[in-house]
Design brief:
Order of helices and strands: EEEEEHHEEHEEEH
Strand content: 35-45%
Largest sheet: 6 strands, antiparallel
Number of domains: 1
Distance between the termini: 36 Å
Oligomer: single chain
Number of strands: 10
Number of helices: 4
Length: 143
């Protein structure tokens, strides 16, 4: 799915990612999913593969591999911060918390807008991830 903003093509990809996968089996006859007893731990890895493909252009456009997260809701309020990530695993780690979470959002060419729901913010947040430019990296002393 894509849309045009200001005559420039902007890639828009909605996503959902969670580190608490629920294993399900699909019943073709009823066209429904049911919880499965067989789970091989691939759920998160599969989601991460899709997320990696969807964020490829964002990584390609990154000048520095530094990222800024703004307005991440934690137990003591909203926070912003910087982190370094060269892989999708590192990116997801910088965007999330060290507990169970569900992340829903939209990936654009130059940013990710997302909501992260977790035990301290069950209703989620209004969070923004952007690339740190080379100029910002130098100004902020990130090496």
């Amino acid at each position: 799915m894509s849309t045009k903003i200001n005559e420039e093509e902007v890639i828009i990809f909605p996503f959902e990612l969670t580190n608490e996968c629920i294993c399900e089996d699909y019943d073709e006859e009823t066209e429904t999913f049911t919880p499965s007893l067989d789970c091989y731990g691939d759920c998160f890895n599969d989601q991460l593969d899709y997320f990696s493909m969807a964020t490829r252009e964002l990584f390609d456009n990154s000048e520095t591999s530094w990222w800024k997260v703004s307005n991440l809701k934690l137990w003591n309020g909203n926070h912003s911060g910087l982190f370094y990530a060269e892989s999708v695993e590192q990116l997801v780690e910088g965007m999330t918390v060290r507990s169970g979470w569900i992340m829903r959002g939209t990936i654009y060419k130059d940013k990710i807008e997302y909501s992260l729901s977790h035990h301290d913010a069950p209703m989620g947040s209004n969070t923004l991830l952007t690339n740190v430019t080379e100029e910002e990296r130098q100004e902020w002393g990130l090496y």
